[in-house]
Amino acid sequence: MKDVDKREHILLKAEELFSKNGFNETSTRMLAAAAKVNLGMLTYYFGTKDKILQALIDRKLGFFRDSFAVIDKLDLPTIKKVDAIIDVYVDHMFEHRRFHRILHSEVLSEKHSDLLDYAYALIKKNHEFLSEIVEKGKKEKEFKNIDSRLFMASITGTLTLLIKTETVGIFWLSSDSKASSLDDPAFKKHVKTFLKEMAHGYLIAKTN
C-alpha cells in the first residue's frame, strides 16, 4: 500500500472510531489496530491523535472553502449563489454526517481547547463567505436589510439538527414518511427546496 493510501486508510478508520467511541475514548492503540498499522507508523504519518483529528477537520472543512471559491467566480445573480451554497452545505453535511457529528459532539466542546479554536476559525471563515454574499445582496438592494449571521445560523443549524437526530428528524420532516436515511434523494431534495424557499422569502426585497 502506498504512503498516501495508508494515510487515507488511517483517516478513514479514525473517523469511524471517533464517531463510534468519541475522541477521548479512542486510544492510539485502538486506531493502530483498526488501521492494521503499528504505533510507530501512526506517529510517522500524523504524530499525535490530535493531528489525526486536525487532518480530518482540514479535509472536510476545506471542501467548503474550495467549493465556495468556485461559486464566488460564477457569473450568477446573488440569490443563485446563495442557492448554490445551500446545495453544497446539504450535500456535504448529509454525505459526511459522521464527521460533522464528531465535530459538534467532540471538537466543539471544552475538551479540546486548541482544536476547538482551530475548527472554529475554519467554520467561522466558511460562514463568513455566505454572510459576505448576503451583505453584497443588501448593498445592491437585491436583499432585505436582514442579519446575515443569523441567516447563516438558521441554515447550518437546521442541517446540524438533522444530522445529529437523523431518525427523529426524518420522521418529523419527511413529507411522505418513507425516507429511511439522509441518503434518500427525495428527502435531500425536499430539504434543499425548503431551505432555498426560506432563503428567497427571507432575503429577496420586494419591488414596487
Structure, described:
- With about 210 residues, the chain is an all-alpha fold.
- It contains 10 helices and no strands.
- It has helices at about 5-20, 30-35, 40-45, 50-75, 80-95, 95-105, 115-140, 150-165, 165-175, 185-205.
- α7 (about 115-140) packs across α8 (about 150-165).
- The longest helix has 27 residues, at about 115-140.
- It is elongated and about 65 Å long.
- The N and C termini lie far apart (about 65 Å).
- The model has no long low-confidence stretch (mean pLDDT about 85).
Task: Provide a brief overview of the structure.
The chain has ten helices and no strands. It is mainly α.
Q: How would a crystallographer describe the biggest sheet? A: none
Overall pLDDT score: 86
Unreliable stretches (pLDDT < 50, length at least 5) are none
Percent of residues in beta strands: under 5%
| Count of DSSP H/I helices | 10
- Ends apart, CA distance between termini: 65 Å
